[in-house]
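Support request from a user on the community tier.

User writes: "When I paste my structure tokens into the form, the page sometimes reloads and wipes my input. The last time it worked, I copied everything first. Here is what I submitted, just in case something in the input itself triggers the reload:"
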């Protein structure tokens, strides 16, 4: 609970600083841009976002339905948005999946099965992220997206390598039990030498439990290759839809010099870099990256206004909706537990 409060405080401070530095140079200009948004196009942007979550929810539903055939798309959609809220308020998006497992337990899904479903969904998303990243990097060689900041450009490729490494290790732990154990235990003992990990046996037991889930998931994935490929495709559609949102936002602001491919590539790079930022929602760094990459195509109050709209639509709004759903979920469970005489 204490860690959650600290995360929220850090998040609010970071968001306040982002607003300050975004508005301080041209407050009236940014406000003017926001007030003159084309409402119909802006609503269309919201529709794209909501549709994108349908594809993400379809992926999650397919994996959950392996253990609970009655699980509906509506429930998967709500679970996805609750995950958006919890991921958004925790560093490195670490809070969503554990609570999603908890909620699935209330839907009569065993904890082990719920954990396997979430691991499968995460693996399919990670593979989709790598595929989209490769496409974005290849497209970047044909269009002028990279900035003059050498360090920022370097972080793109470093972010891609880190995501690829994470995927390789996840697949390694899922498909090769003995090798995964050896690597994980070797890492723990390495840290123990530097007194980073003090209770080796306890940590090894935790790792064994975690690797057991990954290995069980890997065994199941071998039996359901068709499902994993379908879910990778669904996550690719989800990512593409969210990555073209800035293109529509600039159109809503009456600016036509950012095309759909430039939007796709730029946001791909922004999201790759955001993996380095431990602040909830990668707040601060992700806005800076957006301004730098889209600054190749736009500038001034227009660029700042587009960034604020983008963050509201893709980060703040899903968190608000997820929070509301979570509150209704908790309220419904309390009512179910009441006994009326």
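"...and here is what came back when it finally went through:"
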């Amino acid at each position: 609970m204490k860690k959650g409060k600290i995360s929220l405080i850090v998040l609010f401070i970071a968001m306040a600083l982002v607003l300050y530095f975004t508005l301080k140079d041209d407050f009236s200009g940014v406000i003017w841009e926001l007030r003159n948004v084309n409402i119909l196009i802006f609503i269309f942007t919201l529709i794209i976002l909501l549709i994108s979550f349908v594809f993400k929810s379809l992926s999650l539903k397919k994996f959950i339905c392996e253990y609970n055939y009655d699980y509906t798309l509506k429930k998967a959609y709500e679970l996805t948005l609750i995950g958006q809220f919890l991921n958004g308020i925790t560093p490195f998006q670490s809070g969503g999946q554990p609570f999603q497992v908890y909620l699935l337990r209330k839907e009569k899904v065993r904890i082990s099965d719920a954990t396997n479903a979430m691991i499968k969904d995460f693996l399919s998303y990670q593979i989709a992220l790598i595929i989209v990243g490769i496409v974005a990097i290849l497209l970047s060689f044909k269009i002028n997206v990279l900035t003059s900041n050498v360090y920022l450009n370097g972080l793109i490729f470093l972010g891609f390598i880190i995501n690829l490494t994470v995927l390789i290790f996840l697949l390694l732990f899922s498909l090769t039990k003995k090798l995964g154990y050896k690597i994980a235990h070797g890492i723990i003992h390495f840290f123990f030498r530097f007194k980073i990990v003090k209770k080796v046996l306890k940590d090894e037991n935790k790792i064994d439990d975690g690797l057991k889930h990954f290995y069980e998931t890997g065994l199941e994935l071998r039996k359901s290759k068709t499902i994993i490929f379908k879910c990778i495709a669904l996550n690719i559609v989800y990512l593409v839809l969210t990555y073209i949102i800035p293109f529509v936002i600039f159109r809503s602001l009456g600016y036509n010099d950012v095309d759909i491919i430039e939007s796709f590539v730029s946001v791909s790079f922004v999201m790759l870099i955001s993996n380095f930022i431990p602040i909830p929602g990668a707040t601060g760094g992700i806005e800076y990256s957006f301004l730098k990459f889209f600054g190749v195509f736009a500038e001034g109050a227009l660029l700042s206004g587009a960034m604020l709209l983008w963050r509201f639509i893709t980060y703040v709004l899903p968190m608000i909706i997820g929070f509301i759903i979570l509150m209704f979920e908790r309220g419904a469970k309390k009512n179910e537990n009441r006994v009326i005489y």
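Agent notes: The reload is a front-end session timeout and is unrelated to the input. Residues 2-337 form one domain. The chain has one domain: 2-337. Escalated to web team.
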